[in-house]
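tokens incoming
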């Protein structure tokens, strides 16, 4: 019997596996690669990137993991708030000035200013909500964040706006993978807080690309990491959990004292068949939006106008944002070197429009818009391009999401949930919950070992024939 089986080789599962690397573990990943929605590939001094790209800073769980795993991250040196809209490329200056600098009609400008003031004031309120309070458990803070403005959509919050004003707000909010009429008002406000780095932020990049982290975590697993292992079912026994999976065309089964279920909520709902009904129902209600990403390696030989920029918001384009993945390299070089790397990101409806397109169609569509955003001739510098697509890309908070959190947070049992759907900080939430599930698993193992030493193992009780397995396990995680 294994100590722990970890289901899912994304950031949450790898974090849990790394934390439990001194235990007898097995990590099962259904794909033929690890990392989940973290995916980058090195190309000389640059890297192509398709997934998560920016990470939390000092004092975070991410910071702890990076330091312990020996992976370097630096503050992104380029501007995070640049924008291209209606033919105008804005690189410098405060975002509050953008309504006066972007070409648009007077009616749209007035609407943008009024709504911007409203959103800005709410971002200040949100900063107070999200701030960690002395002695406060992380789960209490997370619940407070979910509760903030969770009864209406962001669209209801901002109201009807002229096209240009609406496009600007929509482009920022839909980076969450939810549209303005899907995402909660509080989550939309929170996303502006992230982008503006008010009260919290994701502002660091991993040197060498994000997969540097996931590959380092995977290396610690050795042959305990199994790819192409698609889990079919996770069921409780009295003092253990059985995981049934299919690998290389063969049905397999492994028993463990506890399981960390670090999959998307949609998968957890499907495979964890004997979780309490209310937990499975809560998992079924978690919502995901799609996204499609493209990566472009370039060979330009001179400076470009996007060199001092990291993120370029692109309203009314086929992608919501273009990301300069060479920003970290630019920030450390004395002379501008040849080449670069650009990532484009199409979330929500932009992604839905591209999900069924071929890779070449996605690349051509994004290149047409990059010619406008980055300047004519950009396509001529592209030497390599690739596409990734996720139908269930990212979880987003919707009206009513706050009510699910207490159920998803419930403690007890031997199946422990981990994943970015359990919080609001994307990669940071994935790492937090991976750490927390590992800690809970270690606690369960310690109790089992103590009981075995002092009392001896309890007799094994198998489910009665024609009856469902025990269903008193509870899914949980404890946020660090």
């Amino acid at each position: 019997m294994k100590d722990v089986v970890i289901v899912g080789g994304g950031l949450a599962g790898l974090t849990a596996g790394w934390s439990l690397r001194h235990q007898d573990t097995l990590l099962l990943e259904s794909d033929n690669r690890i990392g989940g929605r973290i995916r980058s590939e090195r190309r000389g001094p640059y890297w192509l990137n398709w997934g998560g790209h920016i990470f939390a800073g000092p004092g975070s769980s991410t910071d702890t993991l990076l330091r312990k795993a020996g992976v370097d991250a630096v503050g992104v040196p380029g501007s995070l708030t640049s924008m291209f809209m209606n033919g105008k490329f804005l690189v410098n200056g405060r975002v509050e000035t953008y309504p006066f600098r972007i070409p648009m009609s007077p009616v749209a400008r007035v609407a943008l200013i009024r709504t911007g003031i409203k959103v800005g004031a709410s971002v200040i309120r949100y900063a107070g909500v999200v701030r960690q309070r002395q002695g406060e458990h992380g789960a209490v803070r997370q619940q407070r964040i979910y509760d903030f403005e969770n009864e209406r959509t962001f669209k209801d919050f901002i109201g009807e706006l002229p096209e240009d004003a609406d496009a600007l707000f929509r482009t920022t909010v839909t980076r969450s993978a939810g549209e303005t009429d899907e995402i909660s008002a509080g989550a939309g406000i929170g996303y502006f807080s992230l982008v503006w780095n008010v009260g919290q932020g994701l502002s660091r990049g991993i040197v060498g690309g994000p997969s540097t982290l996931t590959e380092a975590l995977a290396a610690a697993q050795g042959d305990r990491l199994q790819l192409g292992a698609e889990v079919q079912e996770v069921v409780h026994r009295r003092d253990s959990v059985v995981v049934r999976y299919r690998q290389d065309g063969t049905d397999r089964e492994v028993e463990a004292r506890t399981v960390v279920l670090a999959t998307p909520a949609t998968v957890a709902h499907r495979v964890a068949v004997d979780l309490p009904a209310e937990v499975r129902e809560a998992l079924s209600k978690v919502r995901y939006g799609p996204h499609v990403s493209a990566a472009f390696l370039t060979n330009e030989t001179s400076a470009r106008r996007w060199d001092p920029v990291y993120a370029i918001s692109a309203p009314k384009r086929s992608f919501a944002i273009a990301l300069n993945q060479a920003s970290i390299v630019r920030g450390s070089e004395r002379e501008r070197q040849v080449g670069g790397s650009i990532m484009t990101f199409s979330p929500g409806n932009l992604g839905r429009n591209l999900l069924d397109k071929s890779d070449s169609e996605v690349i051509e569509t994004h290149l047409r818009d990059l010619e406008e955003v980055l300047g004519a001739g950009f396509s001529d510098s592209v030497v390599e391009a690739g596409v990734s697509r996720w139908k269930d890309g990212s979880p987003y908070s919707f009206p009513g999401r706050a009510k699910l959190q207490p159920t998803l947070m419930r403690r007890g049992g031997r199946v422990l949930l981990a994943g970015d759907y359990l919080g609001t900080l994307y990669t940071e939430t994935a790492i937090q919950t991976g750490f927390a599930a590992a800690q809970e698993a270690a606690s369960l193992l310690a109790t089992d070992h103590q009981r075995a030493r002092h009392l001896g193992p309890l007799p094994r009780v198998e489910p009665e024939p024609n009856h469902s397995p025990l269903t008193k396990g509870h899914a949980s995680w404890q946020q660090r």
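note: The chain has three domains: 2-32+227-287+398-454, 38-80+201-209+288-395, 96-196.
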